[in-house]
Amino acid sequence: MIRDTRLLIAGFLFAVFCIAWWSIPTQKLFLLLSNARGGLFLLVLFTLYVVRPFIAAPLSLFSIFVGYRFDLYLGIPIALFGTIVTCLPPFVIAQYFRGGSGFFGWLSKKGEDVFETTGGVRGVIAARLSPAPADAISYSAGFSGVPMSTFIAGTSIGELPWATAYVVTGASMRNLTMGQIQLDWRILAVGAIIAFALVAKPGYEKLRSKT
């Protein structure tokens, strides 16, 4: 009974947090956070990274804000760590629901085929380097049964260029104006090309084996 009450309270507080997040413009929220200091700031930032997948907030804005708040030497490792943290909840949830029959079973089978073809770490790296949404990749890897260590390693390597680019963007800004935040399309193109290069050979070999 006590456990059910705690879960109910936790769910209520989480719902209140989500409503508050959606009701406050993202720009204003980050500006308010920029006034926090020391451990409080890191605690709030960590909490926001954890709940970000459930409130549909863009991951790129977090890395940009970290770059705006910290220098490159601190900003890049903080942003990369935060990226790994925020990608874990969708991955764990997908792992919990993977297998079985029906829609989840179909997703698991398709995901397993993809990562079996490309290889675990290589497949995660390629997916992370591509411009695909971060949460979609996390769910796909979870449904595919990718081991957590492989997922973390692939995410760390594949997300490093993106985290670095966004942190550099944030560090170069002293006036946080969301309308001015744009990532060079050439960076997106390079990421897509590298991702394709990583999966082209195993994908071609898989295709030949079926013909």
Automatic annotation (TrEMBL):
Pfam families tied to this protein: VTT_dom (PF09335)
Domain of life: Archaea
UniProt keyword terms in alphabetical order: Cell membrane, Membrane, Transmembrane, Transmembrane helix
Keyword Transmembrane included in the entry's annotation: yes
PANTHER family, per database record: GOLGI APPARATUS MEMBRANE PROTEIN TVP38-RELATED (PTHR12677:SF59)
Primary location: membrane
Name this polypeptide is given: TVP38/TMEM64 family protein
GO CC annotation: plasma membrane
Topology relative to the membrane: Multi-pass membrane protein
Lineage per the UniProt record: Archaea, Methanobacteriati, Methanobacteriota, Stenosarchaea group, Halobacteria
Species whose genome carries this gene: Natrinema soli
